[in-house]
Every structure is written in structure tokens, then in C-alpha cells.
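Field reference: sequence -> structure
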Amino acid sequence: MCGADTRVVLGLHRSCHERRVLTGALDLGVTALDTSTNYLGFRSHQILAQTAGDLLPQFTVSTKVGYFPGRNGGEHSLDPVRLHAAVEQAADDLGREPDLVFLHNPEHSLCAAAPYDRDVLTQACTVLDDAVKKGLCAAWGVASWDPSPLPALIDPAAPKPSVLMVRAGLLVGARTLDAADALIKVWDLDDGAVWGMSPFGGSVGAPVWARIDPRVFLRDGSRFSHVQAAFRVACHLPRVGSVAVGTDDPAHLGELVDALTGEVEERTIREYRKLLRDRSRAQPA
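Structure field:
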């Protein structure tokens, strides 16, 4: 078993939750596991406890609350009572308190809550902060697929998350990257408290990865595959301390762990961010 490397988080979105994947992750030193109440048809926590309950103490486990069973598979809610109950249920189903609970995509409900959306967000954050104080989880955070509405809704007096999770990588647009940077600033988070997710925009098999060469962003790019380079670059778009990535293939996970040895050209990253912003400004509103 390799030494623990918390820069890679095994994400279980779209995962089959197979035990061999978890043991493979541990062999590689990947000891952070990320799931959600709504993964695997709202059964992720129970399946983990059933198939790998003895392995879970070897992981730091993060999960998310905000989606609930409903019509068409699920519904989103920031109702304080439902959020609190979801945190309690997560601990019961996992057989242990989560190390980290994210407020999952709060933007999903906030637009519908206008003009009281700031109050709704503050109440949701307060629920998770209280859950930490009650010992239902060790820490709480915010996971946002589209963080652009959030910076304007932050109440400086509201509880602040310990971790922010946002999309990361070459396929993330300027608007999302800038919003992530704004949240990092307003919550005064260091790099280690920021996680990236979906570094490949959904799939390493997407045609885009055959058309572009992410190795140009690395000083020693020739040592790596396009997929490895894209993963390494995701740690800098935006700058994050960890990246959650989903896979059911331990060999693929091992390739991504190896990619962390790559050195990123910071100047090329800055130039790319500038190009993204310039293109965004040039597009019609």
C-alpha cells in the first residue's frame, strides 16, 4: 500500500460501488472517498456499508445533502428540517459519522427562492454548521456545479464552510472559474480547502481529448498521456488542493495518481485564463 495522497479523491458519482475499486484505491494511497445521498439511486450510503463497511474506517468519507427522492427520480431542497434529517440519515446509513458533509448544489434552489435567496442560503449553511457542533459530521462544505450565483448571496456574518468543491479543468468556462475564485476569496479558503470535480467534463472518452493536447501546460509533458496531463492541469483551473474523480478502473486511478508528479507551467495557465476571459467578454450578452 502506498502512502496516503489526499490530492486524489475517489468520487462515486456513476460508480458501481465495487469493493475491488475501494481496495485498489487504498493500495494506491487514495484514502479520500466522496459520495452523496442521491448517488446510485439514493442507495450509495447503504451499499457502501454493506459491501465495504470494514474498509470505510481507512477512508476519510465525504458526502452531500440537498437532493431528495421525488418525482422523476429526485428533487432539490434547502429546507432546514430536510437537510438536518439527511445528515442524520447519512450517519445512520454509513454506520459512521461522515468526515465532511457538503451542501450539494445550493444554486439549484436559490433562484426559485428570490428575493429571499440570501436568507435561504444562510439558513442552509447554519444547519450544516450546527450538525458539526452536534457531532453528526466532522466538518461541512459547499459543493457547487455552477457557483456563479453564489458570491452575491454570501452573508459575511453567516457560518463559513471548511471546504469548497467546484468544477475544475480545461473544459470549465471563465464565468465558473471567476465565480470559484470569488467564493475562495470571500470565504478566505486556502488551496487545501478547495476541491475540484469533473476534471474531464464527464468522460475521458469525450472527443475533445483526442483533439487537444493538454501536455502543453506541463514542463515535462512528454512523460504523460493526454488524460494524465488534463488531470494534472485540473489542479490549477482553478487552483485546488484535491480533485475528486470517478472511475471503476483501479488502473486508471493509478495513472491519475502518477500524473501528480507533473510540473505545471504557471505562465501558460495564466495565459489560458486570460484567453478564456477575453473570449467570454467578446461573446454577446
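Note: The mean pLDDT is 94.
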